[in-house]
Design goal:
The chain is an alpha+beta fold. Helices cover 19% and strands 28% of the residues. The chain starts with 8 loop residues before the first helix and ends with a strand.
């Protein structure tokens, strides 16, 4: 089946947030004042690219800092973007050797600059242009020229940004930058599957490459695979914690956008195969972070929208901060997935010290009584793996995400949650423990490491945490329905209380 490549609002917001970094748009006019134009190389470390490596350039136009006037940019044909040339010149600045093309053309013909608002855009030099450059030093500049139309007329040229072109090498810094640039170029060519493949070649052997993980999360989001995007960004945040330093604005904002996307992605949309990253991304983070993931001068993710950069949002720490002042708090807790060898069905189901869910609700359900959330309450009552109306089953088979929340009769200081999956196990992506006042604690978030055997089986998924200082009254389970084929069904959920 062919997949139509479209950009969702969350995905567009993610790329604009990670790629731009300039300021707003639009206002009214006073002639006599000349606008200022600037250029900034994007996704480039040490102002250096390799021969044939695509190059992206951000361009901003604004009033002079001391001016209180307004300027209208309204060329006779097109917009200010069409009147702007972004060029590479030889180092003496006399000869143009490459011309960029804008990523997005502005639909509005008139742009107004004032004290608070400027205009911005992104241009790129494709590989076919960069291949023509020999190793050496160059300059990158932008020139705005408007000689007809209404409003301001004239020409303004940016200060040049220095650029060095070098031969292809195996230096880790160069390899990472080259991969990111090629992936960005593929997205700009409307080839997300190609972009994913470029990134996956790296992640298959270096899943702890931070910049590649960030871009891969955004590519997952382009494909509508929210769970995989979440897995990539969760791994990146784990790496960030190990590296120390200040929390990344881009990571927290990307995580927030992914959470928003979970509610906006159409449940009817089919997730393409290229949206799923390699399995290495889902393995535990290695103790040592590769050097190639530690240095980059920006977070190089493609911008695919003409939305003003002035809409760049303030960073929100996705863990521990509520979505609104009235919402319950969400607090992270580090839990571990219990090894499958410890989860023996007969031992768990016969344990009289633990409790099964008393009631349940869910995002969706396949049937009013059969397959309803109530079927996941009480002790297990399914003896054979496979489809059963005595288990909760979401309305959708393998598209989107869903959740099941269970209430237990006696709130306890807990140490573990166990989930019995009777069909299509391996779809769990998050476990939350909830106090009576609604405060949620994220015990675990990631991708279920379960590997389906040749013969279908009932499988347990369990997360273990240190004894909680709070009382757990509810447990919420989030599923990625697109994790694999089959209807995802849950038979029962057990809450393990602390013995002391």
């Amino acid at each position: 089946m062919k997949h139509v490549f479209t950009l969702s609002r969350p995905a567009i917001g993610v790329f604009l947030m990670l790629w731009s970094g300039l300021v707003g748009v639009m206002g009214a006019e006073v002639p006599a004042v000349t606008p200022e134009i600037s250029v900034s190389l994007r996704g480039v470390f040490d102002r250096t690219v390799e021969v044939g490596e695509p190059l992206r350039v951000a361009v901003g136009v604004a009033l002079p800092e001391e001016s209180a006037a307004t300027i209208t940019l309204a060329p006779a044909n097109g917009s200010w973007i069409d009147a702007t040339a972004v060029e590479i010149l030889v180092s003496d600045g006399d000869r143009v050797v490459g011309t960029a093309q804008p990523v997005v053309r502005q639909t509005e013909s008139t742009t107004v600059l004032d004290q608070e608002n400027g205009a911005n855009g992104v241009w790129w030099f494709p590989a076919k242009v960069m291949t023509l450059l020999r190793p050496g030093d160059y300059l990158v500049r932008a020139k705005l020229s408007i000689h007809d139309g209404t409003g301001w007329k004239g020409e303004c040229v940016s200060e040049s940004a220095q650029l060095r072109v070098v031969a292809t090498s195996n230096d880790p810094e160069r390899v990472t930058q080259r991969v990111l640039s090629r992936a960005h170029a593929a997205v700009l060519d409307h080839a997300p599957a190609k972009a994913a493949g470029i990134l996956d070649e790296v992640l298959a052997v270096d899943p702890d490459n931070m910049p590649v993980l960030k871009l891969r999360a955004a590519i997952c989001l382009l494909g509508g695979d929210v769970a995989s995007a979440h897995a990539c960004i969760t791994r990146a945040r784990t790496l960030e914690t190990r590296l120390g330093g200040e929390p990344s604005v881009e990571l927290h904002e990307l995580a927030r956008r992914i959470d928003e996307a979970a509610n906006e992605v159409s449940p009817a949309a089919e997730v393409p195969a290229w949206a799923l990253p390699p399995r290495s991304v889902f393995y535990p983070v290695r103790p040592i972070v590769s050097k190639s993931s530690q240095r980059t001068n920006d977070t190089p993710v493609v911008s695919v929208d003409s939305k003003p950069a002035g809409t760049l949002l303030t960073a929100v720490h996705a863990e521990g901060i509520a979505k609104s002042t009235d919402a319950p708090k969400v607090i992270p807790t580090t839990g571990v997935v219990v090894p499958a060898g410890e989860l023996i069905d007969a031992k768990i189901t016969s344990d009289p010290a633990e409790q099964w869910a008393e009631s349940a609700t869910a995002g969706t359900k396949y049937g009013k009584t059969q397959y309803s959330p109530a079927q996941a309450t009480g002790a297990p009552n399914i003896s054979t793996a496979g489809n059963s109306p005595d288990a909760w089953c979401p309305e959708k088979k393998n598209v989107g995400t869903d959740w099941l929340e269970l209430t237990f009769a006696k709130p306890v200081h807990a140490t573990e949650v166990r989930v019995r999956q009777n069909d299509a196990a391996g779809a769990i992506t998050k476990i939350e423990a909830i106090e009576s006042d609604g405060t949620a604690h994220v015990w675990w978030e990631g991708v279920d490491p379960y590997v389906a055997p040749a013969v279908r089986e009932i499988a347990w998924f369990a997360v273990r945490v240190p004894r909680t200082p709070y009382l757990v009254a509810n447990v919420k389970i989030t599923l990625n329905l697109a994790s694999g084929p089959g209807w995802k069904e849950i038979d029962a959920v057990q809450l393990v209380g602390a013995t002391q």
